[in-house]
Amino acid sequence: MEKEAGSVTPRVAVYAGSFDPVTHGHLDVIRRGTKLFDEVIVAIGHNVRKERTLPLAVREQVLRDSTSDIPGVRVDVFEGLLVNYCRRVGAGAILRGLRAVTDFEFEFQIGLANMDMAPDIETVFLLTDPRNIFVSSSLVKEIASNGGDVTRYLPEAALAALEAARPR
Predict the structure, then answer these.
(1) Chain Cα centroid distance, residue 84
(2) If DSSP codes are grouped into helix, strand and coil, which group holds residue 78?
(3) Which of 5, 40, 65, 163 lies 20 to 30 A from 19 at CA?
């Protein structure tokens, strides 16, 4: 349900990313976000200039399958600036996960830019569960591409999608 442009609701948050693939770390942030917000919109950023391992439609379906048991979650796709998307859907917050100090510098810079462009939209950071601190989509893809076992890092739907995308 899209809101009137410029109208934001503080109890709606957007958790954006490429989710290529979605990991248990992403799902942890989503689950915890639903305790803070009435609705968490998991928004897959679509950038036609970037090459991804999993096609957009697959990432969208994997996220729908992986979040179907979490009340208050909606999956969507967007292009362009995240703050503009937040305004279109009426979200008053951007939800982000922080794994380590290396994440902080990048996230801090992006958060400040978003704050400058849209002071009415807050950025909320959740610390990653220590069990997921080293897990990233890039690391998972690297392990998988070299024949490693990534089952403990991914939900079933993402594991199946990554396996199907693996060159034979």
Answers:
(1) 17
(2) strand
(3) 5
Which residues, 6 or more positions from 92, have their beta carbon under 8 angstroms from its beta carbon? 8, 9, 10, 11, 12, 13, 86, 120, 121, 122
pLDDT (tens digit, 9 = 90+) per residue, 67-81?
999 999 999 999 999
Residues 124-154 pLDDT 10s: 999 999 999 899 999 999 999 999 999 999 9
Specify the CATH number for the domain of residue 74: 3.40.50.620
Tokens of 33: 């976000």
**Run of H or E residues at 79:** none
CB burial string 78-95: b at 16+ within 10 A, e below: beeebbebbbbbbbbbbb
User: Is the entire prediction scored with pTM above 0.85?
Assistant: yes
Q: For residue 118, give its domain range.
A: 9-163
Q: How many domains does the chain have?
A: 1
Alpha helix (H) residue ranges in 68-125: 82-89, 101-117
